[in-house]
Structure prediction request, 145 residues.
Amino acid sequence: MSKDLPFVGFGFGDQGQKIGIVGAREFEFLTDMFIDASFIRDPANITLLAKGLNHFDQGMEYALIEDIDGFSENYRKTFAAEEDQPFDQFISSISNFEMPDLDQLAPPKITDEQIVFYVVHQGLDMPYRVTGAADGRSKLTYSPL
Prediction:
């Protein structure tokens, strides 16, 4: 990603609507953001594209996994530590689930106009594979690993 790019962020507007921000401009629709800030669709900025697609599809429920090695290492350590703890139905734990195939994790990639990237569910701390149209014209598919 070029350091010469304007600020790009994602959040919520005054009415709770999902928005994207480029520089000082706010966008309520991803397609408008793509028109005004076409650099987001440049392959060199695929991380921004994945973040935008994810945000406009799911809001803040999922976060893009950018540091794959760090995420995998921390997940494995947490999973192992939690397995040694007694089960408590009132405490959510990643070890309540099977260990996901973390070897699938990879940077965002576009093939034949379809994007694949990986996110973590903010509440469950579980990784998901996300697939869908790279142009944002349809809902994304979120599949647990």
